[in-house]
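Hi all, posting the design record for the shared folder.

TITLE: backbone redesign
STEP: 1 of 1
STRUCTURE INPUT:
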């Protein structure tokens, strides 16, 4: 009976995660909000820990597809580690920033992008998997991976420790109608893993923990590149930023980045 309960719970968990991701994917206003802030996005979004990047590039010239590459943050890091990178990005303004860094970028959503018989050793979603429809995306990835190829989901999971999100929730609730949970990439790892395994992959996770300190200005610059901040009206953004700045004061924010690579291999 316990195995049956576990199986039912796992199925419910996967279904819940799928519903959440499809709901987020359908919110195109959030998905398309980054282009207007492409320069700030590129300047203030953190790079991925070098140890995670280096661990992925197992041979020079590894054919890599960077999906939802944005301004090319992950693309450049992968190229510097020795990969040959093709980026796919739906927003022309974001892709233009990536191209200015020497990244080869094709303008399309992953759903519309055509492989044209090209295959890859590595397919990377760097903080972008939640913007695609997961099951069709997983099937498409399986079709373009070379033998021995891998799918990788990269995330910088930055959480403030002093002050905490709870110390700011009363302010956020006035603007977002929600608490901190959707302000950062709060991927529920067990649910994502179950979803990917259901799509025919085995999953291994690797993490690097970084202790960080942000000045108040730097912290605000970072969080105001998040989609639920960007989709506020200009007046609401200004007011929220002012209230957060007052709450944070001159001490800034101590934070932890529990950066994660979810490495997936076709079963």
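Okay, here is what came back for every position:
SEQUENCE:
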């Amino acid at each position: 009976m316990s195995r049956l309960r576990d199986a039912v719970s796992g199925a419910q968990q996967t279904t819940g995660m799928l519903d959440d991701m499809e709901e987020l994917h359908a919110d195109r206003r959030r998905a398309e909000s980054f282009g207007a802030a492409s320069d700030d996005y590129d300047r203030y979004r953190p790079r991925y820990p070098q140890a995670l990047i280096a661990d992925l590039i197992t041979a020079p010239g590894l054919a890599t597809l960077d999906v939802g590459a944005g301004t090319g943050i992950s693309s450049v890091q992968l190229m510097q580690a020795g990969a040959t990178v093709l980026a796919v990005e739906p927003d022309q303004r974001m892709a233009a920033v990536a191209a200015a860094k020497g990244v080869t970028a094709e303008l399309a959503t992953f759903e519309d992008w055509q492989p044209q018989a090209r295959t890859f050793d590595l397919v990377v979603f760097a903080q972008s998997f939640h913007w695609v429809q997961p099951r069709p995306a997983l099937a498409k990835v399986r079709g373009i991976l070379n033998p021995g190829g891998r799918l990788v989901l990269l995330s910088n999971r930055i959480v403030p420790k002093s002050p905490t999100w709870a110390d700011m929730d009363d302010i956020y609730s006035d603007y977002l109608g929600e608490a901190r949970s959707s302000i950062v990439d709060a991927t529920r790892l067990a649910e994502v893993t179950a979803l990917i395994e259901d799509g025919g992959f085995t999953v291994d996770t690797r993490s690097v923990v970084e202790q960080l300190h942000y000045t108040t200005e730097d912290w605000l610059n970072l969080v105001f590149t998040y989609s639920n901040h960007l989709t506020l009206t200009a007046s609401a953004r200004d007011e929220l930023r002012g209230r957060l700045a007052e709450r944070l004061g001159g001490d800034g924010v101590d934070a932890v980045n529990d950066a994660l690579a979810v490495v997936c291999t076709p079963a």
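COMMENT: Strands lie at 63-67, 84-89, 104-107, 120-126, 145-155, 158-162, 201-214, 253-266.
Let me know if anyone wants the other runs.
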